[in-house]
Structure formats: C-alpha cells, structure tokens
UniProtKB/TrEMBL annotation:
<dbReference type="Pfam" id="PF03454">
    <property type="entry name" value="MoeA_C"/>
</dbReference>
<dbReference type="InterPro" id="IPR005111">
    <property type="entry name" value="MoeA_C_domain_IV"/>
</dbReference>
<comment type="pathway">
    <text>Cofactor biosynthesis; molybdopterin biosynthesis.</text>
</comment>
<dbReference type="InterPro" id="IPR008284">
    <property type="entry name" value="MoCF_biosynth_CS"/>
</dbReference>
<protein>
    <recommendedName>
        <fullName>Molybdopterin molybdenumtransferase</fullName>
        <ecNumber>2.10.1.1</ecNumber>
    </recommendedName>
</protein>
<comment type="function">
    <text>Catalyzes the insertion of molybdate into adenylated molybdopterin with the concomitant release of AMP.</text>
</comment>
<keyword id="KW-0501">Molybdenum cofactor biosynthesis</keyword>
<dbReference type="InterPro" id="IPR036425">
    <property type="entry name" value="MoaB/Mog-like_dom_sf"/>
</dbReference>
<feature type="compositionally biased region" description="Polar residues">
    <location>
        <begin position="135"/>
        <end position="144"/>
    </location>
</feature>
<keyword id="KW-0808">Transferase</keyword>
<keyword id="KW-0500">Molybdenum</keyword>
<dbReference type="InterPro" id="IPR005110">
    <property type="entry name" value="MoeA_linker/N"/>
</dbReference>
<dbReference type="Pfam" id="PF00994">
    <property type="entry name" value="MoCF_biosynth"/>
</dbReference>
<keyword id="KW-0479">Metal-binding</keyword>
<keyword id="KW-0460">Magnesium</keyword>
<feature type="domain" description="MoaB/Mog">
    <location>
        <begin position="184"/>
        <end position="320"/>
    </location>
</feature>
<dbReference type="InterPro" id="IPR036135">
    <property type="entry name" value="MoeA_linker/N_sf"/>
</dbReference>
Length: 404
C-alpha cells in the first residue's frame, strides 16, 4: 500500500476504503462488562437479545374500561375490579368490565379497552359505552414490540441514550462492550505551546491536542496524551517507542510535503509508511503506517484540516476497528446559498451553515482557521471539478454527525 500506486491524488472514498480495510484487519480485541449507566458511546461486543417479551403481558393503552367484547350487548356492565399500573389483576368476571389505567395488565378474559371519554357511568355505578367497540382496541398485546429471543441490537451497535433506554426496557443491567481503544495523541511542531504558557516569538498555541482529545473521549477512547513533540528525529523515535502499548498513534503536523518529516522518517526506519496525497481540501497529506507494529495515522497540522481528516477518515477507521458497521456520516442535499466559480482538483469540505434552508459558507475557508468550523453547523461537499451556482444541490454533512 503505497502512495506511488496512485500518481495522482487519492480520492476520498478510496482513502476511506483503504483505511476501513486496514481497520478490519486490526479489530480492537477484548471485551468488558459495564453497568448500563456507563455504556453511553460504547460499542456492543455481543448482541443484545431479548430475555423477555415486550410488553411482558397484554396491557391497556388508555385510561378506561377493559371488557370481553362478547359481553357487550348494549346493556351497562358492572365494574368488577380496578386495575392500576403495577398491580396484578384477577381474571375478569364474565359479564362485567374492569376499570383500568394506562400500562396496567389486561385481566385474563378481557380482550378490548374502551377509553374513559367514551364511557358513561350510570348512577348505579354500571358503565355503558357510547361508541361502537372493535375487538382488541386500545390493547397492547404481549410481545408486540419484541419477542423473547429476538436480537434487538446487533454486536457493533454504538450505544447512545436511545439504545440505553431500549436495553433498560429489556432489563439489561450490564452490557458486554468492546474495551476502550487506547489512542495516543501526538502534536508535532517546534512552534507549539500548550495553553497556559506565554507565547514566545514564532510560537502558537496547540489547538489540535484539545480538539482531538475531546473528540476521542466522545468516541469512547482511552486517550494517552503524548504532548508536544519537537521536530527532531531522535525525539520522535523515542516518543513513539514509549507508545508501544496503544492501539493507535494519532499525530498531527509534520506531514506536509517538503517539510522535515520526522514522523515519516521514524516510520520508515522502524516500521512502514504510506504517504497519501488525498484529493481533499482542507487536508491532502495523510500518513498511515506502523511503528514497531503500532498503527499510526498522521493528520495534517492545520486545525481545519485536522478536523476534516479526522472526522471523515480517522473517525470511521477507529469505529470500524471497534466493529461498527455504519461509520460514515449521514448527509443530506440542500441548495447552495453561495457561488463556487473555481473547479478544484480536490474535494472540498466547506464550513457552512443553513440559512433559510440554503447552505452558506464561512467567508474564510483557510485550513488554518478553526473558527470557521466553530461557526459552522456542517460541511458542504463540493466535488472535484465542479462549479456551483446559487440554488445548485450540494451535500451537507452536519457536524453533529461526526462530532461524537
Ligand atoms: P505542518 O503540517 O506541521 O506543516 O503544520 C501545518 C500548519 O498547521 C502550520 O501552520 C502549523 O503551525 C499548524 N499546526 C500544526 N500542528 C498544530 C497544532 N497542534 N495546533 C495548531 N496548529 C498546528
Ligand atoms: Mg509542523
């Protein structure tokens, strides 16, 4: 796998396909049990199988009266019991009805519920129904949602609030999830200083570290903060050597063409390296390699490039290593609220917002400008070799699709 295979620029989907294939050959092995409340963002290692029917018993969808439809002749019925949610009813006495509330079990023998709004309570307490009744109405049958033994969530599902609620509905107190991938974050660059220290001449604050660490945590990773790495081969080699127990080394910077490329040197010496020139903007240079067997992804250093290449390439790679199938962000088509005159040879991801249903772009799309992404709600994809007039269709990828 070598950038030389493709003399031109590597299309984004080809780079993604390669990364996903690499991910599938290096699955994160190892599972752990977590209590349900700790499962948010984690990936199921085994399917969640229903251990019971849902609902476990037929119940009422309404506050009203439960009856056997055959008992309703038009003559008012005696109310023989009152069934609240959480109670265990008696079998329904033939020829009577039961007062029943939403979520309460249907008594044995009843097959129909009429809502209280359509019930007339006579002075003697008996009840008549004013509307025609249909057998089974307002009854939630046992197993309507799920049958015992059904797979409700397959292995590889990423747990979120909804999945956690679903697991809880099936009584799952613990889940078996993939262990957290250990990901080391390396920021390269002599110019970088961590926030909290004064800036010297020529220095800037390290923004990628904060961005990537927060993002990786949201992805359920255990982050190893490898700090800032000076542009120096010996230091680079030593730093990478110290990261032998991680699942991925994620570095930023130092992959631009023509630059003193110490990450690349270290990988060539102690492992292998593929340097890809991607047809992506912001982005373009991306390194994939191994250092002494540990996978390494080198993202470009400009913060907006880091954002786009992590979101569209490294994030799917990491999720696929966890066994997640759906790793690509959803996007939708919107009308461009801007003009794009110059066709590019790279696919552009413009930081954009929706205004009145149209995508408008941040005026400064420089790859060094992270503020554009903070302003944005999503990325507008402009395909290679295309121009756009206002109103043309473009794909809009919400940042919320990739930021977690
Ligand atoms: P490089 O890929 O090392 O040539 O970096 C490209 C640009 O991104 C340069 O302007 C760097 O100063 C900048 N850069 C690299 N890493 C970071 C970082 N961690 N935080 C902010 N800017 C960075
Ligand atoms: Mg650099």
């Amino acid at each position: 796998m070598n950038g030389c295979d493709h003399p031109g620029l590597l299309p984004v989907e080809e780079a993604l396909a390669r990364l996903l294939a690499l991910a599938e050959s290096a699955p994160i092995a190892g599972d752990e049990q977590v209590v349900l409340a700790e499962a948010d963002g984690r990936v199921l290692a085994v399917p969640l199988v229903a251990g019971l029917d849902l609902p476990p018993w037929a119940n009422s969808a309404m506050d009203g009266y439960a009856l056997r439809l055959a008992d309703w002749t038009g003559e008012p019925l005696v109310v023989s019991q009152r069934i609240l949610a959480g109670s265990a009813p008696q079998p329904l006495q033939p020829g009577t009805c039961a007062r029943i509330f939403t979520g309460a079990p249907l008594p044995e023998g009843a097959d129909t519920v009429e809502m209280q709004e359509n019930a007339d309570v006579e002075s003697d307490g008996r009840v008549a129904f004013s509307e025609p009744l249909r057998q089974g109405q307002n009854v939630r049958p046992q197993g309507q949602e799920t049958r015992r033994g059904e797979t409700v969530l397959p292995a590889g599902t990423r747990m979120g609030p909804i999945e956690m609620g679903l697991a809880a509905s099936l009584g799952a107190a613990e889940l078996t999830v993939r262990r957290r991938p250990r990901v080391a974050v390396v920021s390269t660059g002599d110019e970088l200083v961590p926030p909290g220290q004064p800036l010297g001449p020529g220095q800037i604050y390290n923004s990628n570290r904060a961005l990537l660490i927060a993002w990786l945590k949201r992805l359920g990773c255990a982050v190893v903060d490898a700090g800032i790495l000076a542009d120096d081969l010996e230091l680079t080699r030593a730093a990478l050597t110290g990261l032998s127990d991680v699942d991925l080394i994620l570095s930023t910077g130092g992959v631009s063409v023509g630059e003193a490329d110490f990450l690349g040197h270290a990988l060539r010496e102690e492992g292998e390296l593929a340097l890809w020139k991607l047809a992506i903007k912001p982005g373009k240079p991306l390194t994939f390699g191994h250092f002494r067997g540990v996978p390494v992804i080198g993202l470009p250093g400009n913060p907006a490039s880091t954002l786009v290449t992590f979101g569209l390439l490294a994030r799917p790679y990491l999720l696929r290593r966890l066994g997640v199938q759906e790793v690509e962000p959803l996007g939708f088509t919107v009308a461009a609220g801007f003009v794009w005159k110059k066709p590019g040879n790279r696919r552009e991801y413009l930081r954009a917002r929706l205004e009145h249903g149209r995508a408008v772009i941040y005026p400064n799309q420089s790859s060094g400008v992270l503020r554009s992404a903070a302003w944005a709600e999503g990325l507008v994809e402009v395909l290679e070799g295309t121009t756009l007039a206002e109103g043309d269709s473009v794909r809009f990828i919400p940042l919320s699709e990739i930021q977690a």
